[in-house]
């Protein structure tokens, strides 16, 4: 089934506008609330053999998609289309964070980011090198995690004091135990095979205030994909993500000691709720030095991540500059304190 | 008018001449700084040490003296040293001096700073110098020990009074290493963070309402006590001294050792 949103005024294909948060018509400028968009104007077309092919309702062209695409444009007429059967049933997302950064803002934010790169080659920050910029809803699983931690540790408190000409070191040993109920909410893990996990992790955090119940119109005009990994498969990844957080918390509950050494640590984490969620990401494909560099931008907060090219010259210059000035400062201090330069 | 100018010119010339003398007096007045009463040094060594001592004496306006004796009766080297120095100072009209004394019979060595050297070569610095020369003394290289005393004291005396000249923060190699490490660390973290840094923390997804400690135990188990002696502040190796006053009323900084 293919879904297109037709403008109630002029019949053009509408797409989601990240500035207003409404469906907007590119022809007449009409804006419609997503919640109240008239049913009549939602064009649903059911293909008998749709498992194989989707057809654009405007021009009849075959919509070319990859197997995991759920929202795209008709490659012939450019109309935003949603592939509904990839967004329903088991594949229906529960939540979505809509784009709040428009394409123009994303371009501007990306330029600003390249200018801040202190180690990038000079040519990198100038010139129009953005090859492609794609707004994409990336599938994530959000986990509400419930758990318990049982910890046993041997802790010491050390005290030094002097009586006469003897220094006493007094070490008190304590048995420490903690039983902890743990709860973490909406820890994300990216469920798309295509996306680099590390890149996606660094895009976090998203602002969950803007987390909305999923409605298909949010996807109109963007690319979207369905998950490749289900929530069971990804749970171990989320677990390994929160274990350091849990360790930090456990450490914070054992305070007032000089040393703490754990003798036993049992952490049990269970998933309580799982939400299939789409997060907004701008993918930026950037040509530099005959190579394509890929960057990702958080479509909600504007945070940019990715591997920029590093200029060896600038690295050397920064290193020399910092080392030389640190050396000079130390010399000045040693002259001020000691009265001697060498 | 001409007379007047000539008079002033004469006065000015005299002033220059005398001030020149004044500046040179500190070193010009003294022509012997090595008093080798125990005959431990050769003629050539004495000549060379005189030259070294003269050079550094000019630099600091402080005479570097070396006095050796072989007196088995002497109980305290400070006393003998004080007497020697009073005599020397009165004869030469000098009050600023660094004096290395040794009694080869009792195997005592004492280093003292008089006048301005009492502050520029204080007890702490005296001990640092002694640390360096004791091995040479034990080897019997007395000329080397004095040369070392002169060069090291001279170097120490350039530092502001009170600071420890052997402090690692004054070492160029240390400053250089620190600067390189700092540069490496900062540039390293810049490279590491160039791709965007992780801004999630332990509290990002933390649910404070439902995370809590349900069981808690902090039970005292046992106690151990270890003892050790307060380390001695004065330098090791049978050190003695720490400055004092000569019979002639000259106060000095100093320190001595057996070798």
Mean pLDDT of chain A: 88
Largest sheet of chain A: 12 strands, mixed
What percent of residues of chain A adopt helix (DSSP H or I)?
Answer: 10-25%
The quaternary state of the protein chains shown equals heterodimer
Largest sheet of chain B: 6 strands, mixed
- What is the CA-atom radius of gyration of chain B, in angstroms? 29 Å
Largest interface: A-B, 68 and 55 residues
Alpha-beta content class of chain B: alpha/beta
Show unreliable segments of chain B.
12-28
What does this structure look like?
The complex is a heterodimer of chains A (342) and B (259). Chain A has 342 residues and is α+β, with helices and mostly antiparallel strands. Chain A has helices at residues 103-116, 197-203, 231-253, 312-338, and strands at residues 2-5, 15-17, 22-24, 31-32, 42-45, 54-55, 62-63, 69-73, 80-83, 95-96, 130-163, 166-190, 212-213, 223-225, 259-288, 291-298, 304-306. In chain A, strands 1, 5, 8, 9, 10, 11, 12, 13, 14, 15, 16 and 17 form a twelve-stranded mixed sheet that branches. In chain A, strands 2-3-4 form a three-stranded antiparallel sheet, with no helix packed on it. In chain A, strand 8 and strand 9 form a beta hairpin. The N and C termini of chain A lie far apart (81 Å). The mean pLDDT of chain A is 88. By secondary structure, chain B is α/β, with parallel strands linked by helices. Chain B has seven helices and seven strands. Chain B has a six-stranded mixed sheet with strand order 1-2-3-4-7-6, with helices on both faces. Chain B is elongated. Classes of the chains: A alpha+beta (342), B alpha/beta (259). At the A-B interface, strand 11, strand 12, helix 2, helix 3 and strand 17 of A face helix 7 and strand 5 of B. Strand 12 (166-190) of chain A pairs antiparallel with strand 5 (212-229) of chain B, so a sheet runs across the interface.
């Amino acid at each position: 089934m293919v879904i297109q949103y037709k403008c109630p005024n002029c019949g053009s294909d509408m797409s989601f506008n990240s500035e207003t948060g409404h469906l907007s018509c590119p022809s007449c400028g009409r804006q419609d609330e997503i919640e109240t968009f008239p049913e009549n104007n939602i064009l649903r077309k059911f293909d008998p053999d749709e498992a194989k092919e989707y057809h654009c309702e405007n021009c009849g062209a075959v919509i070319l998609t990859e197997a995991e695409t759920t929202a795209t444009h008709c490659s012939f007429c450019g109309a935003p289309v949603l592939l509904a059967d990839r967004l329903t049933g088991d594949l229906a997302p529960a939540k979505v964070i809509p784009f709040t950064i428009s394409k123009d803002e994303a371009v501007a934010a990306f330029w600003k980011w390249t200018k801040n790169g202190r180690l990038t080659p000079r040519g990198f920050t100038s010139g129009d090198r953005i090859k492609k910029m794609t707004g994409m809803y990336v599938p994530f699983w959000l986990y509400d995690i419930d758990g318990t931690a049982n910890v046993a540790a041997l802790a010491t408190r050390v005290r030094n004091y002097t009586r006469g000409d003897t220094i006493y070191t007094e070490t008190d040993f304590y048995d420490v135990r903690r039983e902890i109920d743990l709860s973490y909410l909406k820890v994300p893990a990216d469920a798309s095979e295509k996306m680099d996990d590390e890149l996606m992790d660094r895009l976090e955090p998203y602002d969950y205030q803007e987390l909305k119940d999923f409605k298909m119109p949010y996807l109109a005009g963007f690319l979207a994909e369905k998950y490749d990994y289900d929530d069971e498969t990804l749970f171990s990844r989320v677990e390994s993500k929160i274990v350091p957080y849990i360790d930090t918390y456990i450490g914070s509950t054992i305070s007032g000691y000089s040393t703490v050494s754990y003798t036993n640590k049992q952490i049990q984490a269970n998933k309580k709720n799982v939400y299939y969620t789409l997060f907004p990401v701008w993918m930026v494909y950037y040509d530099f030095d005959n190579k394509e560099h890929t960057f990702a931008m958080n479509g909600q907060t504007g945070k940019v991540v990715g591997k920029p090219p590093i200029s060896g010259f600038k690295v050397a210059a920064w290193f020399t500059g910092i080392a030389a000035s640190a050396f000079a400062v130390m010399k000045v201090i040693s002259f001020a304190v000691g009265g001697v330069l060498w | 008018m001409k007379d007047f100018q000539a008079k002033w010119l004469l006065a000015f010339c005299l002033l220059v001449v005398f001030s020149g003398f004044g500046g040179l007096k500190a070193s010009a007045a003294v022509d012997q700084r090595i008093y080798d009463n125990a005959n431990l040094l050769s003629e050539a060594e004495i000549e060379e040490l005189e030259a070294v001592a003269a050079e550094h004496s000019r630099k600091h306006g402080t005479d570097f003296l070396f006095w050796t004796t072989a007196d088995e009766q002497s109980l305290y080297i400070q006393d003998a040293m004080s007497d020697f120095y009073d005599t020397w100072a009165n004869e030469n009209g000098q009050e600023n001096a660094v004096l290395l004394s040794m009694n080869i019979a009792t195997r005592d060595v004492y280093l003292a700073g008089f006048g301005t050297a009492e502050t520029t070569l204080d007890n702490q610095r005296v001990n640092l110098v002694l640390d360096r020369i004791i091995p040479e003394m034990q080897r019997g290289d007395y000329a080397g020990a004095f040369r070392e005393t002169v060069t090291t004291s001279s170097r120490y005396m350039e530092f502001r009074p009170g600071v420890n000249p052997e402090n690692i923060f004054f070492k160029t190699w240390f400053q250089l290493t620190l600067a390189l490490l700092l540069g490496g660390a900062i540039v390293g973290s810049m490279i590491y963070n160039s791709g965007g840094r992780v801004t999630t923390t332990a509290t990002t997804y933390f649910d404070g309402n439902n995370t809590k400690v349900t069981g808690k135990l902090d039970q005292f188990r046992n106690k151990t006590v270890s003892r050790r002696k307060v380390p001695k502040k004065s330098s090791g190796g049978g050190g003695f001294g720490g400055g004092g006053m000569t019979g002639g009323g000259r106060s000095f900084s100093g320190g001595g050792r057996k070798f």
